[in-house]
Predict the 3D structure of the following.
Amino acid sequence: MKLKNELKGAKTAAISGHIRPDGDCIGSCMGLYHYIRKNFPDIEADVYLEEISDKYDYIEGVKDIRHTVSEPKEYDVFFVLDCGDTDRLGSFAEYFKTAKKTVCIDHHVSNSGNFADSNLVEPKSAATCETLFYLMKPEEMNTEIATALYTGLIHDTGVFKHSNTTERTMTAAAKLVGMGVEFTKIINDTFYEKSYVQNQILGRALLESVLFFNGRCIFSALRQKDLTFYGVTPKDLGGIVDQLIVTKGVKCAIFLYETEPQVFKVSLRAKDEVDVSVVAAHFGGGGHVKAAGCTMMGSVYDVINNLSAQLAKQIAEE
Ligand code: 5GP
Ligand code: MN
């Protein structure tokens, strides 16, 4: 795929990603937005994403992001980044459906690669931002693009820690650092910094966590009443599952929170040989081998029971 070809002849372009956008989704959308502004200034480009945390304010232009679908519009080209299905596009799927051409750039193994008119799906890429980086020539880039793309690399690799990190990832990161990215600030402000309530809810989730399968799995669940009590919203819950998975001996961590009565957003993380993408896919979700998610219905007990039945196929109970 060549970005230049995908943009050829377009006067309007829309860029969007998955619901509950994470650092890679935001970074890739903003990186492509700045790429178009720098290299194709005549194209009118709009970014559509759900509301994002103000910790991403250092990325130039995040205030331009549109959060709602207003009037019917037919974009010449619609880019879907870090996302491979219309369900996960949320309300922005409307513009995907009406666009003259659609382009998908993604790295999820669960993306079958025939979602849009033109598709580039690289499951070996640590982040959509990595894939996007290799679609851009150094002379087509600037610090704004580099800052946005670096954010995605950091978030999807857990600061270059996860097993998805490769030489290709580090080469991209090195080039981005060479373009003047303020990496210490980005890593501290977006990855490690937590507000007081975020720390409180993390503490609560850890306190109430339960080990099972002889200490090989761990789960923690938060109900709507817990979120209300601490005054937190879903975007304050990032990082909880990543803390659960560092528990010694644990190979799979499950974190769930209630979005509506008896409806749970499930986050899964894996270590060693465990593959959680198949478990998430079994329940209609998706993601990566070591980090995946889905939405499940019922009580916490039902959700954990159903997940355990699938996990038992990989993690034998001793
Ligand atoms: P997280 O647990 O951080 O929300 O998500 C981990 C990974 O799984 C991310 O790459 C995310 O895009 C993917 N993921 C999470 N939930 C879902 C889901 O419901 N459907 C799909 N297809 N992917 C998901
Ligand atoms: Mn990603």
Notes: The mean pLDDT is 96. The chain has two domains: 3-192, 196-311.
